[in-house]
């Protein structure tokens, strides 16, 4: 007997949690859990296939290319293989894999090769987790993980990087705000995502104002 959708979601949750047990903190199980919750929140307002959204949110970072020598095929392949073991129907499986293939920011210049409300929802949820207090925390954690500078006034942000330039960038963490984080508000897909992004965007602006004031020695 085939598992129910609820059982598949529970099995997927357990599988991802095990798989990301020792992952970098910005891309670990807790990141997945937050994106999953954000996805469900947006999906409660935006009409969609909730089963597809749930599976895609849980599996979207099962093998982030940053930790696999830039190979963007690993994540979709692992997701495909796992969902096949769960006897997920081919249409659902294909939709989930397409979402994983198209969700990443990659400099903000990549043209989507797949379009669906489910992709829009999961992508918005993932982008929300790169904003606000959590986004700031993740940015500096990853910068420390890669031994990057906090800030260097001589190194200016590059907001027009190609996909390959973005993937290879080693600029200071503060630059990342201008090269990605502050761009996300304008890249949200759904009306719900846009509303949720506003407060997190404003929080990041307040943080940067405080950061530069302290950097400059202002009272």
Would you mind describing this structure in some detail?
By secondary structure, the protein is mainly α. α5 crosses α6. The longest helix is centred in the C-terminal third of the chain and has 25 residues. It contains ten helices and no strands. The protein has one domain: Hypothetical protein af1432, CATH 1.10.3210. The model has no long low-confidence stretch (mean pLDDT 91).
Quick recap:
The chain has 219 residues and is mainly alpha-helical. It has ten helices and no strands.
Give me the secondary-structure topology.
Blueprint (H helix, E strand, L loop, with lengths): L4 H15 L9 H15 L6 H10 L14 H12 L4 H13 L14 H12 L3 H14 L17 H6 L4 H7 L11 H25 L4
Helix pairs in contact: 1-3, 2-3, 2-6, 3-5, 3-6, 4-5, 5-6, 6-10, 7-9
InterPro entries: HD/PDEase_dom, HD_domain
Organism: Planktosalinus lacus
Protein name: Phosphohydrolase
User: How many strand segments?
Assistant: 0
What CATH architecture label applies?
A: Orthogonal Bundle
Helix content: 55-70%
Rounded mean pLDDT is: 91
CATH fold naming: Hypothetical protein af1432
Instruction: Profile the largest sheet.
Output: none
User: What is the highest CATH level, the class?
Assistant: Mainly Alpha
Please mark out the parts with pLDDT under 50 across 5 or more consecutive residues, or reply none.
none
C-alpha-based Rg, rounded = 18 Å
So what's the oligomer here? single chain
Look at the helices and sheets and give the structural class.
Answer: mainly alpha
H/E topology pattern: HHHHHHHHHH
How many separate helices?
10
How many structural domains in the coordinates? 1
Shape designation: globular
Domain HD/PDEase: 24-140
Pfam family, one: HD
Organism: Planktosalinus lacus
InterPro entries: HD/PDEase_dom, HD_domain
